[in-house]
UniProtKB/TrEMBL annotation:
InterPro entries: DinB/YfiT-like. It comes from Croceibacter atlanticus (strain ATCC BAA-628 / JCM 21780 / CIP 108009 / IAM 15332 / KCTC 12090 / HTCC2559). This is DinB-like domain-containing protein.
Amino acid sequence: MKKSIIKSLQYTLNKSTDLLTQIDSDSYINNTVGPFYSSVGSHIRHTLDFLNCILNSIENNNDIDLTLRNRDEAISKNKYKAIEEVDSIKNRLDNIKNIEDIVYVIDDCGTGKIGINYTLESILAQANSHTIHHFASISFILYQLNIDYEIKGFGYNATTPIPKRKGI
C-alpha cells in the first residue's frame, strides 16, 4: 500500500512515453501556440526536471530544493532523450525504500524561498499532480496544432468525473 504513489507516478509517466511515441519531433518542439509559446517538449522537460530534482536530492541525502532544478534543455528539444529520461526516472522510483521519511523541501511560492517539511510520499504525490497538470497544458497545445493522439484520460486528474471530461 505504501508504494502506491510510486506505482501511480510510474503510470502517469507511462502516459508521457505513450504521447512521445504518437507525435513527431517537429510537433514535440513546436512553440507557436500562445499565450505562453511553450512546446510539448518544454512541458515534458519541466516535469522531468521536477522529478529528477526530488530523486537526485534523496539519493544524495540532501534537502529537496525545487529552485535548483537542472532544467536540461536537451530534453525539451529531443523526444527520444525525453523517453530515455522517463525510463530512467521510472527505474529510479523503484529504488525508493522509505517513502514515509520526512524530507525538507525548499521552493519559492511567490514571496521568496521557503522550507516545508513533507513526507517523501507527499512530495511524490505533488509531483504526480504537477505532471498531470502539465499534461493538460500539453493537450491544449496539441489541440491548437490540430494534432490527434489517443491516451485515455491524458491531462485529466483521476478524480475528474468522466461525464465532465471531453474528448476521451
